[in-house]
Amino acid sequence: MVLKIRLARFGKRNAPFYNIVVAHARTARNGKPLEVLGTYDPVPKPPPSGEGKAIKDIKLDTSRAKYWLGVGAQPSEPAWRLLSMVSC
User: Fold this and answer.
1) Cβ(41)–Cβ(65) under 8 Å?
2) What pTM does this model have?
3) Strands 3-12 and 74-75
């Protein structure tokens, strides 16, 4: 069975929030995943100091992501961009 690392959307309309999940390739986008690797909040938050660029929040369990990549899970394009940002 082919495994995918992809984003599952949650949150309200115009306020998206994503879980980074491992799921079978044929399951629905928001179907039950095998494992939740982390979260991604694409809505920029102001920095704590009040100066500088807004921050998009990415939380990821890198050890589990490396495990799933090692056993052959294929990341989707958006998930691949997030994994490369976290330098997995």
Assistant:
1) no
2) 0.86
3) parallel
